[in-house]
Amino acid sequence: MTVDFEFRKQVMDYHIGSDLIKYCYQCSRCADNCPVTKVTTDFYTTTGYNPRSNILNALLGYKAAIFDADPLTIWGCTVCDTCDEVCPQNIELTEIFTFLKNQSIARGDGPDFVYSQAEQIFLAAKAIPSQPAIERRRDQLGLPPVAAPDVEEFQTLLKNMGTNRKLK
Ligand code: SF4
Ligand code: SF4
Q1: Is the confidence at residue 12, as pLDDT, over 90?
Q2: pLDDT of 50-103, one tens digit each?
Protein backbone atom coordinates (compact mmCIF):
# COMPACT_ATOMS: atom_id res chain seq x y z
CA MET A 1 0.00 0.00 0.00
CA THR A 2 1.44 3.38 -1.05
CA VAL A 3 1.65 6.15 1.53
CA ASP A 4 0.54 9.56 0.27
CA PHE A 5 2.33 11.96 2.59
CA GLU A 6 0.59 15.05 1.19
CA PHE A 7 -2.82 13.49 1.84
CA ARG A 8 -1.70 12.49 5.31
CA LYS A 9 -0.62 16.05 6.06
CA GLN A 10 -3.93 17.42 4.74
CA VAL A 11 -5.82 15.12 7.10
CA MET A 12 -3.68 16.20 10.03
CA ASP A 13 -4.07 19.88 9.19
CA TYR A 14 -7.82 19.57 8.80
CA HIS A 15 -8.49 17.91 12.10
CA ILE A 16 -9.81 20.31 14.71
CA GLY A 17 -7.72 19.97 17.83
CA SER A 18 -4.40 19.79 16.01
CA ASP A 19 -2.83 16.36 16.03
CA LEU A 20 -5.26 14.37 18.13
CA ILE A 21 -5.75 11.92 15.28
CA LYS A 22 -2.22 10.70 15.90
CA TYR A 23 -3.42 9.18 19.14
CA CYS A 24 -6.02 6.81 17.75
CA TYR A 25 -5.01 3.49 19.26
CA GLN A 26 -7.48 1.43 17.22
CA CYS A 27 -9.61 0.37 20.17
CA SER A 28 -12.59 0.05 17.79
CA ARG A 29 -15.09 1.68 20.11
CA CYS A 30 -16.15 3.89 17.18
CA ALA A 31 -16.90 0.88 14.99
CA ASP A 32 -18.53 -1.06 17.83
CA ASN A 33 -21.01 1.78 18.36
CA CYS A 34 -21.53 2.93 14.78
CA PRO A 35 -25.12 2.22 13.64
CA VAL A 36 -24.02 1.98 10.00
CA THR A 37 -21.34 -0.58 10.82
CA LYS A 38 -23.97 -2.60 12.66
CA VAL A 39 -26.19 -2.94 9.60
CA THR A 40 -23.53 -3.22 6.88
CA THR A 41 -20.83 -5.42 8.35
CA ASP A 42 -20.82 -9.16 8.16
CA PHE A 43 -19.22 -10.39 11.39
CA TYR A 44 -17.28 -13.08 9.55
CA THR A 45 -15.86 -10.84 6.81
CA THR A 46 -14.18 -7.44 6.63
CA THR A 47 -16.77 -5.92 4.29
CA GLY A 48 -19.04 -3.07 5.30
CA TYR A 49 -18.61 0.41 6.67
CA ASN A 50 -15.96 0.84 9.34
CA PRO A 51 -14.98 4.21 10.89
CA ARG A 52 -11.98 2.69 12.67
CA SER A 53 -10.52 1.53 9.33
CA ASN A 54 -11.14 4.95 7.81
CA ILE A 55 -9.26 6.67 10.62
CA LEU A 56 -6.41 4.18 10.32
CA ASN A 57 -6.13 4.63 6.54
CA ALA A 58 -6.29 8.43 6.88
CA LEU A 59 -3.71 8.37 9.66
CA LEU A 60 -1.33 6.26 7.59
CA GLY A 61 -1.90 8.20 4.35
CA TYR A 62 -3.40 5.22 2.52
CA LYS A 63 -5.30 7.40 0.09
CA ALA A 64 -6.10 4.65 -2.40
CA ALA A 65 -7.68 2.51 0.31
CA ILE A 66 -10.15 5.33 0.89
CA PHE A 67 -10.84 6.80 -2.54
CA ASP A 68 -10.45 3.75 -4.77
CA ALA A 69 -12.69 1.60 -2.64
CA ASP A 70 -16.47 1.13 -2.60
CA PRO A 71 -18.21 4.54 -2.16
CA LEU A 72 -19.65 3.22 1.10
CA THR A 73 -16.15 3.58 2.55
CA ILE A 74 -16.60 7.34 2.68
CA TRP A 75 -20.27 7.97 2.16
CA GLY A 76 -21.62 5.37 4.56
CA CYS A 77 -21.26 7.81 7.44
CA THR A 78 -24.56 9.52 8.31
CA VAL A 79 -22.83 12.01 10.65
CA CYS A 80 -24.84 10.85 13.65
CA ASP A 81 -21.83 11.80 15.85
CA THR A 82 -21.97 8.65 17.96
CA CYS A 83 -18.32 7.82 17.27
CA ASP A 84 -17.23 11.31 18.33
CA GLU A 85 -19.01 10.84 21.66
CA VAL A 86 -17.60 7.41 22.48
CA CYS A 87 -13.99 7.83 21.32
CA PRO A 88 -11.77 7.65 24.44
CA GLN A 89 -9.20 9.85 22.69
CA ASN A 90 -11.72 12.62 21.90
CA ILE A 91 -10.98 12.31 18.22
CA GLU A 92 -13.55 14.14 16.13
CA LEU A 93 -13.97 11.43 13.56
CA THR A 94 -16.80 13.19 11.74
CA GLU A 95 -14.48 16.12 10.98
CA ILE A 96 -12.14 13.75 9.20
CA PHE A 97 -15.03 12.08 7.39
CA THR A 98 -16.30 15.49 6.22
CA PHE A 99 -12.84 16.19 4.83
CA LEU A 100 -12.88 12.84 3.00
CA LYS A 101 -16.34 13.56 1.54
CA ASN A 102 -15.23 17.00 0.35
CA GLN A 103 -12.17 15.45 -1.25
CA SER A 104 -14.34 12.87 -2.97
CA ILE A 105 -16.52 15.61 -4.50
CA ALA A 106 -13.44 17.66 -5.49
CA ARG A 107 -12.17 14.58 -7.37
CA GLY A 108 -15.55 14.31 -9.10
CA ASP A 109 -16.16 10.79 -7.94
CA GLY A 110 -18.90 11.08 -5.35
CA PRO A 111 -21.74 8.56 -5.62
CA ASP A 112 -24.69 9.34 -7.89
CA PHE A 113 -27.18 9.74 -5.05
CA VAL A 114 -25.17 12.64 -3.63
CA TYR A 115 -25.16 14.50 -6.96
CA SER A 116 -28.87 13.94 -7.52
CA GLN A 117 -29.65 15.11 -4.00
CA ALA A 118 -27.47 18.21 -4.49
CA GLU A 119 -29.15 18.90 -7.83
CA GLN A 120 -32.58 18.74 -6.21
CA ILE A 121 -31.46 21.24 -3.59
CA PHE A 122 -30.02 23.49 -6.29
CA LEU A 123 -33.29 23.42 -8.25
CA ALA A 124 -35.70 23.84 -5.34
CA ALA A 125 -33.54 25.72 -2.81
CA LYS A 126 -34.74 23.21 -0.27
CA ALA A 127 -33.50 19.85 0.96
CA ILE A 128 -37.06 18.58 1.34
CA PRO A 129 -39.59 20.12 -1.06
CA SER A 130 -42.90 20.98 0.52
CA GLN A 131 -45.71 18.49 0.01
CA PRO A 132 -49.49 18.75 0.47
CA ALA A 133 -49.36 16.26 3.35
CA ILE A 134 -46.83 18.43 5.19
CA GLU A 135 -48.89 21.56 4.57
CA ARG A 136 -52.07 19.83 5.81
CA ARG A 137 -50.34 18.66 8.97
CA ARG A 138 -48.97 22.13 9.64
CA ASP A 139 -52.44 23.55 9.16
CA GLN A 140 -53.89 21.02 11.63
CA LEU A 141 -51.24 22.02 14.16
CA GLY A 142 -52.01 25.71 13.67
CA LEU A 143 -48.62 26.43 12.11
CA PRO A 144 -48.26 29.02 9.34
CA PRO A 145 -47.57 27.86 5.75
CA VAL A 146 -43.90 27.36 4.90
CA ALA A 147 -42.55 30.41 3.07
CA ALA A 148 -41.28 29.62 -0.42
CA PRO A 149 -37.52 30.13 -0.75
CA ASP A 150 -36.07 32.59 -3.22
CA VAL A 151 -34.68 30.04 -5.70
CA GLU A 152 -33.02 32.62 -7.92
CA GLU A 153 -31.15 34.22 -5.04
CA PHE A 154 -30.11 30.82 -3.74
CA GLN A 155 -28.80 29.71 -7.13
CA THR A 156 -26.91 32.97 -7.60
CA LEU A 157 -25.27 32.41 -4.23
CA LEU A 158 -24.20 28.87 -5.13
CA LYS A 159 -22.93 29.98 -8.53
CA ASN A 160 -20.85 32.72 -6.93
CA MET A 161 -19.39 30.14 -4.59
CA GLY A 162 -18.63 27.83 -7.53
CA THR A 163 -20.73 25.08 -5.94
CA ASN A 164 -22.80 24.52 -9.09
CA ARG A 165 -19.64 23.50 -10.99
CA LYS A 166 -19.25 20.57 -8.63
CA LEU A 167 -22.68 19.21 -9.57
CA LYS A 168 -22.67 16.68 -12.38
S1 SF4 B 1 -12.77 5.05 19.18
FE2 SF4 B 1 -11.18 6.64 18.81
S3 SF4 B 1 -9.25 5.70 19.51
FE4 SF4 B 1 -10.74 4.03 19.30
S5 SF4 B 1 -10.42 3.26 17.18
FE6 SF4 B 1 -12.04 4.80 17.06
S7 SF4 B 1 -10.97 6.72 16.57
FE8 SF4 B 1 -9.43 5.29 17.33
S1 SF4 C 1 -20.88 9.66 12.72
FE2 SF4 C 1 -20.67 8.23 10.99
S3 SF4 C 1 -18.98 6.89 11.54
FE4 SF4 C 1 -19.61 7.95 13.40
S5 SF4 C 1 -21.06 6.54 14.41
FE6 SF4 C 1 -22.27 7.93 13.12
S7 SF4 C 1 -22.50 6.92 11.14
FE8 SF4 C 1 -20.84 5.87 12.26
Answers
A1: no
A2: 999 999 999 899 999 999 988 888 999 999 999 999 999 988 899 999 999 999
What is the pLDDT at residue 162?
85
Q: In terms of residues, how long is the chain?
A: 168
- Ligand 1 atom with minimal separation from the 51 CA: 6
The pLDDT > 70 percentage for the chain reads 92
Q: Using a 6 Å cutoff on CB, does residue 36 contact ligand 2? A: yes
Domains along the chain? Answer: 5-106 (1.10.1060.10), 112-166 (no CATH)
Which residue has its alpha carbon closest to ligand 1 atom 2? 87
- Ligand 2 pocket member 31 (CB < 6 A): no
DSSP state, 22?
Answer: G
pLDDT at 19 over 60: no
Q: Is the dihedral of CA 39, 117, 78, 21 positive or negative?
A: positive
- Nearest CA, atom 2, ligand 2: 77
Q: Nearest to residue 100, comparing CAs of 158, 51, 167, 166?
A: 51
* Three-class HEC string of 115-165: HHHHHHHHHHCCCCCCCHHHHHHHHHCCCCCCCCCCHHHHHHHHHHHCHHH
